[in-house]
From TrEMBL:
Pfam families per UniProt: adh_short_C2
Protein name, entry field: Oxidoreductase
Recorded GO MF terms: oxidoreductase activity, acting on the CH-OH group of donors, NAD or NADP as acceptor
Family: Belongs to the short-chain dehydrogenases/reductases (SDR) family.
Highest taxon in the source lineage: Bacteria
Entries under SMART domains matching the protein: PKS_KR
Native organism: Roseovarius nubinhibens (strain ATCC BAA-591 / DSM 15170 / ISM)
Gene Ontology biological process terms, A to Z: fatty acid elongation
UniProt xrefs under CDD domains: SDR_c
């Protein structure tokens, strides 16, 4: 039977690569992104998709995502909470509005989407949640008070989901990507950060969107049927070097 996923932040970057991989694997995908123009470009000419230009941080829009997905596909087997925003800055320069902007999408969005999707994931009998955190959620740095804190929250939220929803056959796991050259990363990575990452990462390079998507797809699949509550760093080995984030 065809399996169905909701992918948030699906219009570009890691979310689009994940959508493309799931479609190749035969899934149907509800593609959610608040950037309607980018989403229209990403969905053009594709089959087995539903385009939902909506905001994961707004409860009424999250409810609409679930209603329209259920109408179109009948239910879901996987939820990929990938939508995210980045904002780098030290504590004293991160005003409350900047802090809230990051928390709204990165943390509130994951909570709201998971809560609203749980009935469909329960009904699936083999539901999977994959949350996208970051290596910035695994260790602190001087620039990432909001972003890093939001991603550490996503890692803990994953464990809460795994512990609470396991009895319904729902697995929840987390992917913590290292640096990938997406629009999000390139807006906050200075040349200094790029050079430092190249030096520090054992594979001496940034990852690709597809390399992150491969692990997300694995965690959604039956191949990961006994993997639950884990955070997998997909970072070229950066996390085990002990080197600080640039
Ligand atoms: P990206 O900017 O290319 O894609 C993110 C997408 O999410 C965009 O299309 C954006 O419009 C959408 N989005 C943002 N907020 C939204 C909201 N509230 N509702 C709906 N859609 C929303 O970025 P990316 O690098 O592909 O990021 C994907 C995820 O990976 C993010 O959670 C990010 O924090 C995480 N991540 C990225 C990197 C990296 O280096 N690129 C590293 C670690 C983690």
């Amino acid at each position: 039977m065809t399996k169905t996923a909701i992918v948030t932040g699906a219009a570009r970057g890691i979310g689009l690569a994940t959508t493309e991989l799931l479609l190749e694997d035969g899934w149907q995908v509800a593609m959610v992104d608040w950037d309607a123009d980018e989403l229209a470009r990403a969905t053009e000419g594709r089959e087995r998709i539903l385009a939902l230009p909506l905001d994961v941080s707004k409860p009424d829009q999250v409810a609409e995502i679930m209603t329209r997905t259920k109408e179109a596909f009948g239910g879901i087997d996987a939820l990929i909470n990938n939508a995210g925003v980045a904002d780098f800055g030290p504590i004293e320069e991160t005003d409350f509005a900047r802090w809230r902007r990051v928390m709204e999408t990165n943390l509130d969005g994951v909570f709201l989407m998971t809560q609203a999707a749980t009935p469909m994931l329960r009904a699936s009998g083999q539901g999977a949640i994959v949350n996208i955190a970051s290596i910035s959620g695994l260790r602190a740095s001087t620039l990432r008070v909001a972003y890093g804190t939001s991603k550490a929250g996503v890692i803990q939220l994953t464990q809460q989901q795994a512990v609470e929803l396991g009895e319904y056959g729902i697995r929840a796991n987390c992917v913590a990507p290292g640096p990938v050259r997406t629009k999000l990363a390139m807006a906050v990575h200075s040349q200094e950060i790029i050079d430092a990452y190249h030096d520090a990462i054992p594979l001496n390079r940034y990852g690709s969107e597809r390399e992150i998507a491969e692990v997300i797809a694995f965690l959604c699949s039956h191949r990961a049927s006994y993997v639950n509550g884990q955070t997998i760093a997909v970072d070229g080995g950066f996390e085990c070097t002990g080197v600080g984030l640039p």
